Amino acid sequence: MTDPDVRDAIMTATYEALCEHGYTDLTAQDIADRTDKSKSLLFYHYDSKEDLVADFVDYLVERFDEWIAETRDLTPSERLATFVDWFLYGSGDDDERQSFHTAMLEIRTQAPYNEQYRKELRKSDDRLREIAEEILRNGIETGEFTDHDPEETAALLIATLDGARIRQLTLAEDDYIGQVRSAMVARIFDDILAEDVSFPEGLLPDEIDIEGGVDGTSDLGPSSETRQPEDEHGSSEDGAE
Amino acid sequence: MTDPDVRDAIMTATYEALCEHGYTDLTAQDIADRTDKSKSLLFYHYDSKEDLVADFVDYLVERFDEWIAETRDLTPSERLATFVDWFLYGSGDDDERQSFHTAMLEIRTQAPYNEQYRKELRKSDDRLREIAEEILRNGIETGEFTDHDPEETAALLIATLDGARIRQLTLAEDDYIGQVRSAMVARIFDDILAEDVSFPEGLLPDEIDIEGGVDGTSDLGPSSETRQPEDEHGSSEDGAE
Amino acid sequence: MTDPDVRDAIMTATYEALCEHGYTDLTAQDIADRTDKSKSLLFYHYDSKEDLVADFVDYLVERFDEWIAETRDLTPSERLATFVDWFLYGSGDDDERQSFHTAMLEIRTQAPYNEQYRKELRKSDDRLREIAEEILRNGIETGEFTDHDPEETAALLIATLDGARIRQLTLAEDDYIGQVRSAMVARIFDDILAEDVSFPEGLLPDEIDIEGGVDGTSDLGPSSETRQPEDEHGSSEDGAE
Amino acid sequence: MTDPDVRDAIMTATYEALCEHGYTDLTAQDIADRTDKSKSLLFYHYDSKEDLVADFVDYLVERFDEWIAETRDLTPSERLATFVDWFLYGSGDDDERQSFHTAMLEIRTQAPYNEQYRKELRKSDDRLREIAEEILRNGIETGEFTDHDPEETAALLIATLDGARIRQLTLAEDDYIGQVRSAMVARIFDDILAEDVSFPEGLLPDEIDIEGGVDGTSDLGPSSETRQPEDEHGSSEDGAE
DNA sequence: CATGAATGAGCATTCATTCAT
DNA sequence: TATGAATGAATGCTCATTCAT
Lengths: 241, 241, 241, 241
Prior knowledge:
4 copies of one chain form a homotetramer.
Chain A: H1 4-21, H2 28-33, H3 39-45, H4 49-69, H5 76-89, H6 94-110, H7 115-142, H8 150-170, H9 176-192, H10 236-240
Helix pairs in contact in A: 1-6, 4-7, 5-7, 5-8, 7-8, 8-9
The structure holds a DNA duplex.
């Protein structure tokens, strides 16, 4: 894989195919069809479909890291809010986002059976927890957050965020995520934020762009616009003081 | 499906097959192999494999309801602790439990693509939320819990529990669940429990027995013993006062 | 494989496909095409193509044993001559016979790489050597053959016969087999046969019928006729006195 | 193919790949991997894989001729013994030799389906028979051998040798070759050798070196040592008087 | 009810060969 | 010469589902 364009093309095609078919029904053909290349080429570049998907997970981590870098300049509470909303609402248009997270959940679901996926996913999750802890720790240092155990809180935070998202995806018809978000602000962040700090309205920076390009010409969706959480979650500021 | 014994046999076989192969690799043959009947018979009783799995989810709800009935006599805080530990630690031996939840997660993962699964799973989830809300509401009534919005709290609680379990299953190597549990007790229950009430040490009643039998002769594991959470979560009472 | 008709059908189809394509280019489809059944059925009855071919070799041994039984009543020297000509000229029409032996040789060729084939082929070869030794031993007992080491002679005999056939198949344009046959009669049998015994003109009993039927309606070739070696080998009796 | 070094490199690689994978599983990649060149280059030098293999057979004949030239100075009975042992035991270490002959047998097996291979193999075989006849004819002239038909005897001899080797390769677990060798000495050579001549203990001259180099730096194995047949065949002189 | 046999639609993967550079 | 990238045509095998009995 000497040519990064080809990898990008395959990764983008994989992303699209995952959104459309889900992991369980993902075939090599589905991926190739979203490429101007042949199915055989996939196996020229990867030893197996599994390898390809594992690389896809890795690719996502790279995109995530790029995105995280963009939030460095925000204050801890802003970063926290950004993090939460990115987690809960993500990037891409609504349908695509749901499709994508569904597919990713399917891949996670295979982790117990699949060493390779497990390894990549853990790598990705380690980054996630590191970032969350870093944000909390910074907040404690700057005095924006009350003193608490950042590791434990990060674990709780991410469990809740992940659970909320997964449940929204797999079960809910109503705005389950919004409900959890307010509860989280009220019950968890209220304890964490210092007296005079309120939980900022979510503001996402440039989204994670799967395609990795800068011009947003990807057909992965209108990925360069700043996303706002839907209105019903706007109640956050009310619940946060 | 006129004969309930046959249904039980098929459901038990499905459970075992799911534990062993996971949903993605579950074949009709796998199920039939765990039965003294033939593969064709499955299609005599169900129109498709999908139908069979959907019925399996329904079957689980029935078992859940039976199990819930057994907790009616506990105090709200006891029921809450029981609920939490059942959710996080479940029934069955350790391996089986994990296998089972992994397989169930796979099925949930299909919900976005599968109307039928979605319907059954929502039914199951509705029961779950009802129970959680009921427990919280009862606690408020008896004064064991402080006044709060039970629906929102239930949503938060379940999101966290679900997220913790899923993350333990799909990502964690360490005792992630234990970490989340303590954080939850410290940050969420502390607010909920009235001044003089502490979070009880988890005590599970008779477990949900998938097999539904009363004699416990099933090979689904030693399912009738009362389970205790592992030691590291026993710290709950410490963190809850 | 409860129904022997199906096995027979598959074996016959395998025989024909082997004759036509050779082992190297034998595909499951080729076999299925010579059946009124589907390709999938082959894998219903056999776990793999390899298993099927191994069973085919076994099937041949069964046919061989049936054929051998028919020669029990001949005198040792007659049996020897029959054995030699069966080995060198075999059954079936000329083209088919060659094709078949070629395919069998390909299978033998895989033995060093394939445990399963090796096992079946050895079984088949053990029968062959047993029969040859039995013939020689009987001849010594009846005084038709001079005293010699039957095991060693059988080894030499079969090596020569096998080599001759293989070389005819893979290399020769001329009547190489005939040449070897006369030389064998002159140089080997001359020593073995007692003073007053001459090597009988080859006379094959009913041929080995791959199909195993009794009516010869198989399309495996006109297999029930008594075969005679081609004329040019008729010189055998000349060289043997 | 202007550069003989490239041809040598490809031929050597082909030899090694054949030993390791056998003909049936020989891929162009396998050959290229044993070269410092790319797979595409093979198709630059040869129109097809088949062409390459055909050239490989031709290459072997060239090596054989070089080797034969070295035996010119021996007496006919010495050359005969050398020829026999070269045929039965060949050159190279034990494993390699077997692997190689197995692969060659696979190629021979394709001859009936493949004009090109057939042509090359016949050329190679013609040389073999010529040499055998030449040795026998010389022996008759010098009086070392009794008068007999050299062509017929050569045919018999080679059939037996070839059969023995092939059977050892594809079937035998025991020392089948040794058994045939003694029988051959006792039953065939005894008739051929003049009264006062005994079959010499096999002595191989410099072996055929596939690589064709003179310095023996090839990793084809320690190919320049004189090989001796295994002990159990040393009984030849005993059986030959 | 119950089943063994049967099948069609796929699917991941392989590999000789081609081609632009 | 030389190669990395690319591909079409197969191939063995799987599995939900059907059906005759």
